[in-house]
Every structure is written in C-alpha cells, then in structure tokens.
Amino acid sequence: ISTAMPQWKMASYAGDNIVTAQALYEGLWMSCAMQSTGQIQCKVYDSLLKLESSLQATRALMVAAILLGLVGVFVAVTGMKCMKCMEDDQVKKMRMAVFGGVIFIISGLAALVATSWYGNRVARAFYDPFTPVNTRFEFGSALFIGWAAASLAILGGSFLCCSCPRRETSYPPTRGYPKNASSTGKDYV
Q1: What pLDDT score does 84 carry?
Q2: What stretches pass through the bilayer (predicted)?
Q3: pLDDT-derived band of residue 110, with 50, 70 and 90 as boundaries?
Q4: Which of 63, 74, 133, 183 is at a distance of 20 to 30 A from 174, taking alpha carbons?
Q5: DSSP annotation string for 96-154
Q6: pLDDT for 171 beyond 70
Q7: Mean of the pLDDT values across residues 45-55?
Q8: What is the pTM of this model?
C-alpha cells in the first residue's frame, strides 16, 4: 500500500502565515495537489530518466520488497504444518518455514532501507537553509505505513526463523530406579 500511495512527502507550511487553498503531495510514482474543495489532481512523473537516482532506487527497493514478500509467503506456506506438501519429511518442512522467514526478513530490510532513505532525504531538504520555505516538505503517511510494514515483515520473519528444528543431543538412556521390595513378602506374578 505504501508503494502506491502518493503521500510519501507532503508540503509543509511551518513558519508561513499564509493560509493556502491546496495541499501538495509527492510519492514514488506521481505528485498530487488537493484543493480546499476536495478535488485532487495527480500527475504521473513524465520520464523515468528524468527522475533522481535516489527516487529510482527507492522505487526499485520497494518493488523488490513486495516481490520478495510474495515469494516469502509461498515458501513459508509450504513449510506450514497444516499443508500436505512435503508432509513425509518434517525436517525439510521446517527448513522451508525458516527459509520463508529469512526471505521475509530480507523483504522487510529492503522496505526499511527504502523508506528510511527517502525519509532522510526529506528531513535533510527540510532543514537545508537554502531550501525556500514555501517548497519544504514533511513526512507523509506513506512513510509511516512503510516503516510499520517493514517492522512487521522483519518481526514475522523472525518468528518463522525461531521455528527452526532443534538439534537433538544424544544423552545416555535413563535408568529407572529399582522398585522397593514389598513389605508383605509375597511375590505376585
């Protein structure tokens, strides 16, 4: 959802005494202007080659995170205990679940890097003294959704990795304690 949203950064009116009639948003794929009447006009970026390299990299990381997340779902589902696939070998089934967890962690890290990198660019431009006040942007809601999604993907992948089968250690067989002789002196057969 975060990848498709146009609210990666939104216009900041901090320090302005001007009441504006529109709100400006920018995302990975388009920029939008919302009028005070509720009308929204969006414009898709014209050319891929005219975009900044950091925006292109952010796009690529987010798309990679989505694709890795889908692959992680399919791999982890095959490793679930309730699935009939590979039910004859439980160790391989558990390894598939762990491998799905590793893919989820990588997916979450890709999304975390992309959103943090974009957020860092927004923050640096906001505090840059050479940026005009009326062109400053703040964090948009898509960044927060991206951070939450990345955190949940990493957490879910960690839980799947914790389902790793434990190595069984070989202990000597336990010996039972000898039974006490009965006090009646009779043997039962």
Answers
A1: 72
A2: 57-77, 97-119, 139-162
A3: very high
A4: 183
A5: HHHHHHHHHHHHHHHHHHHHHHHHHHHHHHHH-TTS-GGG-EEE-HHHHHHHHHHHHHH
A6: no
A7: 84
A8: 0.77
Query: Exposed, middle or buried by CB within 10 Å (0-12, 13-18, 19+), for 145?
Result: middle
Closest CA to 167 of 77, 104, 94: 94
State how far the Cα of 3 lies from the Cα of 8, in Å rounded to an integer.
9
Range of the structural domain that residue 138 is part of: 52-163
Q: Which residue has the tokens 């005009």?
A: 132
* Helix 90-127 / helix 141-161 crossing angle, nearest 10 deg: 150
**Phi, psi of 83, rounded to the nearest 5 degrees:** -85, 145
Write down how long the chain is. Answer: 189
How many domains are there within the chain?
1
CATH code of 79's domain: 1.20.140.150
The SS3 assignment for 73 reads helix
Q: Which strand ranges, in their side-by-side order, compose the sheet holding 22-26?
A: 40-44, 30-35, 22-26, 9-11, 137-139
